[in-house]
Design goal:
79 residues, mainly alpha, 1 helix, 97% helix
Length: 79
């Protein structure tokens, strides 16, 4: 009788430990997914900022070059 009791107790303890391990693995998996999603968002944000800066520099440079060429051509034509 005592052996059955201890075996039953051991099985309950094993089930409880298994449940705890399963919950811990699921929590770790969710945490890893959150970190991966956060890194993806941060990477997209950095890439977007870099593209915006490059676009701003390109547009500003184009506007300056076109203005300089336009005024030089106007100066040559009116000379």
């Amino acid at each position: 009788m005592k052996m059955r009791q201890s075996l039953s107790h051991f099985e309950r303890a094993l089930e409880a430990e298994t449940e705890i391990d399963r919950n811990r693995r699921e929590a770790l998996k969710r945490a890893a997914e959150r970190r991966a999603r956060k890194r993806t968002i941060e990477r997209h944000t950095r890439e977007g900022q870099a593209r915006f800066i490059l676009l701003s520099i390109t547009l500003t440079t184009t506007a300056i070059v076109v203005s300089i060429l336009m005024f030089r051509l106007l100066y040559v034509l009116l000379e």
